[in-house]
Amino acid sequence: MKEIVVLSGKGGVGKSTITASLGAILSEKYRVVMADTDVDAPNIALFFHAALKKSRDIRASEKAFIDYGKCSGCLKCVNTCRFSSIVISHDKPLVVPFSCEGCGACAIVCPEGAIEIKAARNGKINVFEMGKAVIISGELSIGESSSGRLVDEVKTSARSEANMMGADLILIDGPPGIGCPVIASIKGSDYVIAVTEPTPAALNDLKRFLEVVAYFNIPTGIVINKSDIHIKSNQAIREFAVVKGMSVLVEIPYDISVPRSIASALPVVKAYPESSASKAICELADKMKSMITGTQNGQ
Ligand code: SF4
Ligand code: SF4
């Protein structure tokens, strides 16, 4: 079983759109588990109108809880919290859960032992059925942190589901950026698809993102989405790829079929299979088939 993760340094370059289409193509031939680790904005399941099979809460963060039966109202905890996460309400300390980092400092200074640091719900994992394939999707609760730990939980669930169904592939839609959830998405993967677009901002973010990937020493290929919107920036990405010794897997031209398919909540390869974008994504899928099977033709 292989794990392929689709990532981008910059948000909005088409990562999830491409992942959804790859999933649609590859699940026709292989047993696929799709893992949506873009936990701030999970939307892979929307592309497939997939039915929710089950859902469970994840308690991957910690927060301070005050036992008012023990609290003497000394307010030492208020002055100790560096995150201003304890406010005074009616002369009593009140924890603001959104900003509490669970650092435990307040519990240490509390003379009455009235504060306990406990696991708190910070999101959930949804499991969707989609024909032969399954989508495991992480969903961070509003205002919550610890998204990296939630991503870890999503990947653990995806691997467990993949083992149960004897899957050939876990296809991961990762989050944008270079932070903890990105690192959690990359860990243990066999291949990274780095999606970018020909703009100076996207190239700048791609460079930063690839520095993170280099730390894990995982084979990586670049996809240039909307490849023809700025020739000079396209050339800059290609030159950068040569310097880094990476291949540009495919160029996906700008194609009005893509936003139209997104508006219909369908993978573009399903909504407009003859479009130029779909043909380029099929080419990318063929390359991934070879990777999955370890053969030249993906058989
Ligand atoms: S430090 Fe403890 S006893 Fe003092 S106000 Fe805070 S919770 Fe209450
Ligand atoms: S656990 Fe840390 S962040 Fe949370 S209220 Fe206590 S001191 Fe503040």
Task: Describe it.
The longest helix is centred in the middle third of the chain and has 19 residues, at 147-165. The chain has 299 residues and is an alpha/beta fold. The radius of gyration is 22 Å and the shape is elongated. The chain contains 11 helices and 13 strands. Strand 12, helix 8 (231-244) and strand 13 (247-252) form a beta-alpha-beta unit. The mean pLDDT is 93. The strands form 3 sheets. A 9-stranded mixed sheet has the order 3-8-9-2-10-1-11-12-13, with helices on both faces. It has 2 domains: 2-59 and 125-293, 3-Layer(aba) Sandwich (Rossmann fold); 61-120, 2-Layer Sandwich (Alpha-Beta Plaits). Bound molecules: iron/sulfur cluster (2 copies). One iron/sulfur cluster binds next to helix 4.
Short description:
The chain has 299 residues and is of the alpha/beta class. It has helices at residues 15-29, 44-48, 76-80, 105-109, 147-165, 180-186, 200-216, 231-244, 257-263, 268-271, 276-293; strands spanning 2-8, 32-36, 51-58, 61-66, 86-89, 92-95, 115-120, 123-130, 133-140, 169-176, 191-196, 220-225, 247-252. A hairpin with a 2-residue loop joins β8 (123-130) and β9 (133-140).
Q: Say how many strands there are.
A: 13
- State the major sheet: 9 strands, mixed
Overall number of domains: 2
Order of secondary-structure elements: EHEHEEHEEHEEEHEHEHEHEHHH
Structural class: alpha/beta
* Beta-strand fraction estimate: 25-35%
Ligands and ions found: iron/sulfur cluster
Extract low-pLDDT stretches.
none
> Which whole number gives the mean pLDDT?
93
- CATH superfamily caption of the largest domain: P-loop containing nucleotide triphosphate hydrolases
Query: With helices defined by DSSP (H or I, 4 residues minimum), what is the helix count?
Result: 11
What is the CATH top level name of the largest domain?
A: Alpha Beta
Shape summary: elongated
Helix percent band: 25-40%
The CATH topology of the largest domain, please?
Answer: Rossmann fold
Q: What spatial order of strands do you see in the largest sheet?
A: 3-8-9-2-10-1-11-12-13
Under the CATH scheme, which architecture of the largest domain would be assigned?
3-Layer(aba) Sandwich
Head-to-tail CA distance between termini: 15 Å
The radius of gyration over CA amounts to: 22 Å
